[in-house]
Amino acid sequence: MMLPLNTETAQSLARRLLELQTAYAQGRPLVPDLEYDRLFDELKAWEEANPTLRLSWSPTQRVGSDLSADFPEFRHTVPVLSLDKAYAPSEVFVWLDKTAKLTNQVLTLTAEQKMDGLSLVLYYKEGILERAVTRGDGTTGNEVTANVKTLATVPLRLSRPLTMAVRGEVFLPKSDFARLNAELAEPYANPRNLAAGTLRRVKSAEVARVPLRIFVYEAFVAGPAGSVPSTHRQALELLASEGFPLNPHLGVFTPDQRPELEAFVAAQTALRPTLEWEIDGLVFKVDDLALRDELGATGHHPRWALAFKFESPQAQTVVEEITVQVGRTGRVTPVAKVKPAQVGGTTVTFITLHNRDYIETLGLGLGDEVAISRRGDVIPAVEEVLERHSEMVWPFPETCPDCTSTLELRGAHHFCPNPVCPAQVKGKLAFFVGRGQMDMESLGPETLEVLVAQGLVSDVADLFTCDFDRLLGVPGFGDKKIAALKEGVALARTRPYATVLASLGVPDLGKKLVELLLNAGILSFDGLVETLRERPASLLEVHGIGPKTIETLGTELLTPAVLDLAARLKAAGLAFDAPPPAAAASAALAGTTWCVTGSFAAFNPRSLAEEEIVKRSGKVVSAVSGKTTHLLAGTGAGSKLEKALALGVKVVSEEEFVTLLNEEGIV
After folding, report:
1. Of the options 3.40.50.300, 3.10.20.30, 3.30.470.30, 3.30.2010.10, the CATH number for the domain spanning 73-309
2. Per-residue confidence (pLDDT) for residue 664, from 0 to 100
3. Longest alpha-carbon distance in the chain
4. Which residues of 169-187 are buried (b: 16+ CB within 10 A; e: fewer)?
5. Residue 65: CA atoms inside 13 Å, Cβ hemisphere, count?
6. Which of 85, 114, 285, 619 is catalytic?
7. What is the value of pTM for the model shown?
8. Can 486 be counted among the known catalytic residues?
9. Cβ atoms of residues 83 and 305 within 8 Å
């Protein structure tokens, strides 16, 4: 669809996405997943390019979910994250090299088909299916156990008393979809939607009449001891031995088998239209489960897995205009306006060009005929220049289009260095007040535009000293509106320190990092500043914080602009320290520093063991050093065990650790 850059279009698109979300949660999806993703990504890209126009109620401000009020909710006990994506084999190799560098080990990868079905988690307790739960929002899903029990291929009882969680994908074979869909008064768009709608039917007898199937692809095993797999392939073998259906297409590769990996991708791409089930790509995973634990995850995706999305169809069009847009961090992004072209059933008009190197590599100029695609069937991209009509490559600007400051090159991207650049000011304001940050709903994009235009607000701190009464008489600002603005500001003063800190917009300082800092005992902004100035290396002891994050914090947070902003916000009454944490359940491990590595029978994921240590006043770190007092070593402990033995660190087995907990009367 054509997406002109104006507020009316954004509101229309946001309302449409909310309608689609509601229908999806009710088990009646109105459009295919790829169409929804396309619309969502178009709105998100538009909002990132125009942050001051982002709506406070925009669906991009919350995580997508398949939760429904018709079924009880259940909080997942295993990670159910999304996957990071690649669109070419070369990007898979880049990810592989980066991952190998993080682990400093030779990796083995598995490759599986990425099913286009309904994600499900099966929870077994001592060999009995206890519950089946949809993915939901990744944290909480709907329990659909009665319906899932109608699937003949889902084992209700295992041959061994295993306690584990099994992830899988429910799908409807293409031939069954065609037959059933032809009988419906309101046909479904694709097999996935019909499968999802079926699984959410209130009466399980109706579900039983639809031949749903499942392929499982992941197992989180908690016991009994000795049965915990150490590799993904062993986990798949365990699942197969218990009668779970697996997707038969599995590849295994090492870093030196790049031609074989590319051949596997090509073969699976060619196989796609002949399959009885829908797939939209491949999933590459690190095989070693201990290395997966070591790599961990971001708040969005695991670092040990990557989704490769199949190549999208291409179209030919002409570049009509190239402009640059400035974000809240000052990053300058070029955007091409092309002659509207259909790609995979969608009209593409605007395409991001990323940076100057991208443009120069393409040799792109105005008027050129280009091949475009939607990578992963979602993100518009210029793939190549087919015929040049320009005399020169489009010249990247030397100055900011909003404030004329000379741009600076940082890494691969250009930035406007002027902290009071109008585009940056509006972007920072929109981020600070947005949903998921300070959540000041009365301060929408249009209101912020007026505040800046009237000279009442020039940065975030001005919101708390602004005389909103001066807006009386401005179109759209009556007594009720002004009262709502004052109420929003008053409510913001009650937000906790963690929310305020994450809302400052400091790069890398999001909610997850703020949580890590608070758990490490850094409970105030002043304490964080002191740590970064006096002893930044001490942050390496915090599990989940690495050298790059510390470097970014030191560079970005300790600037005069951020320190001045924090001081003004603190003076305005916002929280800049957190209350002391609740007392630990026990002080049994006070003064000890633990590193946890390997796989465990009773603690899966191993963060459960780390939580037990923290509860008893112990400290958890991510690496073994001379300050480490204990290493909790599970199966496949690897290099950390070797280093601990070399340093004389006390090594504790899982059995010994459980005994320690039992001594406190905790089983």
Report:
1. 3.30.470.30
2. 61
3. 79
4. bbbbbeebbeebbeeeeee
5. 19
6. 114
7. 0.50
8. no
9. yes
